Amino acid sequence: MTMKAQQQIILFRVEKCNWSTSKLKHFLHLLKVQKVRAPAFHYVSIGPKKVADYTLDQWLLWRTFPNQWNKNPMQTWDRRRRELNNPHLNEMIKTLPPMKSPCREMSLAQLKLAALIRGLIAPCDFLFLDSPELYLDGQQKALFLKALEVHLSRDNAPHLIAAPTELQEWKIFSNIQWANLTTRGYLLHNIDNSQNEDTILLPFAA
Fold first, then answer.
1. How far is CA 89 from CA 17, 61, 184, 204, in A?
2. Which of 80, 85, 97, 147 has the most CB within a 10 Å radius?
3. pLDDT tens for residues 31-51?
């Protein structure tokens, strides 16, 4: 299976399954079933984990630029933010508490926003978002979707794999498919719910 030249958005949903593993593991299993090699990607989990001992800047920079931890990552962060030139992303950053704030004092919504910001700033070819709307209020969700729309409009935008809690709001994006995981197996659908089992458009190299 060859890489698609055009950037794609794949919405991934687990339906009526009682497995305790994350949606990421379900998606990796889908790739295995389809005999597709999993790509390297940046992952934003359903909720922040193991952040209590960090300040916000430590958690953001360490997870965004793990290979530059000892090379002035804040300078890399600022340069990357300017390169992206995304006004909605900048607005998201402004809603965060000061960078030296202890993560243990932040709300779940603030931590989730920080994780989503990290996902947009991190240089990657593939971005996986697990339940990106979780913990966000309506205003925060709208701001994130605007930032994501600008982010994905770039020529070198990453392919996006998202496991949202709702599908309706994602219709603002083009090139969408969604993969539906049921207790009986895997089906790939177009956003209008028409099944597309014969044409698998996963943008990964076999």
1. 34, 16, 39, 27
2. 147
3. 777 676 777 788 888 877 767
